[in-house]
Specification:
Helix content: under 10%
CATH topology: Immunoglobulin-like
Strand order of the largest sheet: 2-9-8-4-5
Shape: elongated
CATH class: Mainly Beta
Order of helices and strands: EEEHEEEEEE
Oligomer: single chain
Largest sheet: 5 strands, mixed
Low-confidence stretches: none
Distance between the termini: 73 Å
Mean pLDDT: 92
Structural class: mainly beta
Number of helices: 1
CATH architecture: Sandwich
Number of strands: 9
């Protein structure tokens, strides 16, 4: 049955918002500086910045969706993937920028990295309820880095 054009209809409006992924980096735990050549046993910190913008972000944050980040690295040229770890954090009302990070106290060796290899750092970012499909999914690629046995 078609709606009668003479009768007012209810409408639903969804506020617009956007998620921005940036600054996927490897930081040396010793110096706190970005690193692109790392010893495979060197303690590291991986982080990414997630920012919510748009007029709907103010309505989204009080719902406290979780931000889940899966960090990984692809070996080049072989394309083997190392799973480096997952971090999950809740959002807060009135906060729009987050920096999920994960520490690798034993470096990349614990994830199976090999010395004298090149890897491409990446992260899968999901926003929503943990254990359910995400309402926002994004992928970011970071820097190329090299490993050595040191």
């Amino acid at each position: 049955m078609s709606p009668d054009p003479q009768v007012p209809h209810s409408r639903i409006s969804i506020a617009s918002w956007e998620g921005i992924l940036a600054d996927l980096v490897i930081l040396s735990k010793a110096t706190g500086q970005p690193a692109n050549i790392v010893a495979i046993a060197e303690p590291l910190l991986l982080s990414v910045t997630v920012t919510f913008t748009g007029s709907g972000a103010i309505a989204l944050m009080p719902l406290a969706p979780a931000i889940q980040v899966d960090f990984c690295a692809r070996a080049l040229p072989r394309r083997d993937t190392l799973e480096l770890g997952t971090v999950t954090l809740p959002t807060q009302p009135q906060q729009f920028t987050y920096t999920p990070a994960i520490a690798l106290p034993n470096g990349l060796a614990a994830a199976g990295a090999m010395p004298d290899h090149a890897y491409w750092l990446s992260a899968l970012v999901r926003v929503g309820a943990v254990g359910y499909p995400a309402f926002m999914t994004g992928w970011i690629e970071g820097s190329l880095f090299q490993t050595y046995d040191g």
